[in-house]
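Next comes this protein:
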Amino acid sequence: MTTISQLSQKTKDLSLQSIQIELKNPNGVQEGYQDFAKELPALSRKRLEKYGIDLSKGYPRRPDHIPIFLDEAYKIRNRPNPNYIERGLNADPEKKALFGAATEVVNLTKYIGTEIVGLQLSDLNEQQLDELALLIAERVVVVFRKQDLSPQKQLEIGEYYGEVEEHPLTGQAKKGITVVWNKFNRGGPLIKFQRGAFAGWHTDLDHEFSPAGITHLHLDSTSETGGDTGFISGYGAFDKLSPSFQKFLEGKVAIHKSAHVYYERDDILSGPKHIEREHPLVVTHPVTGWKSLFVNPAHVVRIKDLEKEESDLVLKYLNEVYAKNLDIQVRVHWQPVKEDEGVSVIWDNRISQHVAISDYNDQWEGPVRHAHRVTSLSTPPVFDPNSKSQREALGWDN
């Protein structure tokens, strides 16, 4: 029989014990090398081995310390880069060095997208890279085909354009070179039927203190058909709005959330939380001086100082403006990719949305889509009330 004094002692003993809880990363990822090297597409393996990427320990590799708590996630790059240089501001407006070295320059549509033919990105000097930055700022997205480009050179170009984002969770070939590969990223085929006018459209890393600026995606392997990437111009989206509605939006602030989630250190049981940051809803590009909508359906959760119902209505309409106006979109076709002839697409995240169109064969047999992404972070976006829209600046309505 247990006495009252014995029960009191047991209770006292329990109160002195701490409860040990093993927290798993809420995003379901593990640190260190992953065992996917043997699954690499043939063309991707040849490129990696050619340029000395060590696959012996596995591929790809996630960071050694993956943040679990919200406060440590907020601290990552939680300041402007004091050494940032907006390279397009240094460029020759006529881009003579870049265009003069190309065999052809093709505008893919009137408002967005240009393809440069006959140039190797690895051969560009600083003057040409500055002119490329200006071209990207004006045309939003630029395509280079038949590129024999090493991951190291891709990283070097990214470092020239800004502080390279070293993703705290995603697998990488080297620090700053993010792997985009469904075998690893999603664990299964991507083919699916998506409903909704703006399913999948997004902007990368808009939750950062200094969001993504110039992003460079290089495909060294792709499926035999499908898998195009769509891009939309934020300049064009802003110009689709009436002058009165433009004025209403200027100066408004949007709340951007992170794609990944983290725990509150002092309130774990409240569940995973997103990083949230505030950015202007209308931004001014620092090179062109043109106004652009800075919003996307994947990450923008609300407009500050509006009622929820008002915010939801406005965001739904703005997302539809992006998704439903084909004249401000371009669809980049990646095929064919051959050995030593990858395809690079470089765009400005500050003035665009993009989507990987989910219609391609990504089974584990045959050629599949494998890419490396290098993202150069910019500066905190701002709105200049004295700036002009693209149409206004270029006189397209005159």
